[in-house]
Amino acid sequence: MLDQNTKVHDESRQGEAFSPAANHSNTYSKKFYIESYGCAMNFNDSEIVASILNDEGFGATRNLEEASLILVNTCSIREKAEQTVRKRLTEFKSAKKANPGLLVGILGCMAERLKGKLLDEEKLVDLVVGPDAYRSLPALIAEANGGQKSVNVLLSREETYGDISPVRLDNNGVTSFVSIMRGCNNMCTFCVVPFTRGRERSRDAYSIVREAQELFDNGYREVTLLGQNVDSYYWTSDSGDETVTFAQLLEKVALLHPLLRVRFSTSHPKDITDEVLHVMAKYENICNYIHLPVQSGSTRILQLMNRTYTREWYMKKVERIREILPDCGLSTDIITGFCTETEEDHQDTMDMMRFVRYDLAYMYFYSERPGTLAARRYQDDIPEDVKKRRLAEVVELHRQNSLAGMQREVGRTFKVLVEGTSKRSADELFGRNDQNKVIVFPKENYQKGDYVMVKVESCTSGTLRGVAVK
Ligand code: SAH
Ligand code: SF4
Ligand code: F3S
């Protein structure tokens, strides 16, 4: 079941090594290898790190053997994520025996959570750098090369890396992430992110628009605006004369070009406004898709989680979305077996899933994280087998829901942005529709980056299949 946990989630990207763009690798004398875990923001951070390291003469490599610096950008969201990283670090530690000059560094949320521990007590790494300290990487590398302990886990109230152009390392050249804010001020009791990422801050709106424009100019056709809670984006210019809300930012990016698709993630149900929904309805190139994590369908559990909405409130929000955006795709995150969860609470979650009929869901069983409010206040009292059984039920219900949702699309025609060649066959392309559903169709003369109208002829629970129509 643990595997099921990751299979159904984004974080299946876990442990990806970035491949350097072809023209990058040979121009640098020193090489770094980076592996990233966790959420899209973390992957995007690795691209910021790559940019900082390029300026220091380090080029990215996919080949571990030629690297003089290994970096692991880590995630602390669940215990399993940390275990995976520990295993990797132990492997790298043995690589150091063969190559004593090699530096190994830990970045990201686990670095922030454990601070110097992995360096001092466990001697697993040479440098420890938290998510707000990447600008100090060059100095820390120099220190570590000189044999010193290098740790910087200071969190910042201002750092957004807004002026740094991320180096796109592992990408399809069509879709890209753009971070618009950092940190999180919500205190969901189960969540470690406010502790590892610090206070919420919004990036300069103009630097975001500039980055999106550059991406478009370089052939990209879709940007996903990223933040832990994008709807609370709020930027004030230095002079204080200008403010930009998330709805306004969305509009600015949408106006760059009709051929640039705009997505965003994540929306906290309490913060998404009608204004955002109306901007989405107004612009064809803002995708009709919202990731609206519910976490639980039980009001009592939602209160314990400090999500600040009730079951009924969430349902009303979903109805409002369907009113303003009738064809909007909806996805969610769900946690099973949170502290004190009863069978009745669990059934409330199942009912919620039947009500919303999510197109996509990332489902987990609760994993207590040290230092979080839940760890301090409540007992992690649901036995693991119960957590996992409930997760299995949630996963199965979601599979049925999403299959039914896919079947409803058969016969419809969608505009698909082509992202690449299908994994199964070189004669087929794949892309996504507005609602974020994956569509596969015969290649003909179409290419990556094209918009193609595709009529859906059949489906599985994860993929629509169709043919291009003129
Ligand atoms: N900012 C986003 C989510 C960030 S973490 C939001 O507010 O929705 C991604 C997901 O991981 C969460 O939505 C939650 O479902 C899950 N998660 C977070 N902490 C967890 C924990 N301790 N155990 C299990 N799942 C957790
Ligand atoms: Fe964690 Fe809640 Fe913030 Fe999401 S909104 S990152 S779940 S504290
Ligand atoms: Fe993980 Fe940190 Fe993202 S804990 S989910 S990498 S913000």
UniProtKB/TrEMBL annotation:
Radical SAM core domain location: 170-404
Domain annotation TRAM: ranges: 407-470
Subcellular compartments: Cytoplasm
CDD domains (alphabetical): Radical_SAM
Name the record gives this protein: tRNA-2-methylthio-N(6)-dimethylallyladenosine synthase
Chief subcellular location: cytoplasm
Region: Disordered, residue numbers: 1-21
PANTHER family attached to this UniProt entry: CDK5 REGULATORY SUBUNIT-ASSOCIATED PROTEIN 1, MITOCHONDRIAL TRNA METHYLTHIOTRANSFERASE CDK5RAP1
EC numbers on record: 2.8.4.3
Chain sites annotated for binding [4Fe-4S] cluster 1: 39, 75, 109
GO CC list: cytosol
Role: Catalyzes the methylthiolation of N6-(dimethylallyl)adenosine (i(6)A), leading to the formation of 2-methylthio-N6-(dimethylallyl)adenosine (ms(2)i(6)A) at position 37 in tRNAs that read codons beginning with uridine.
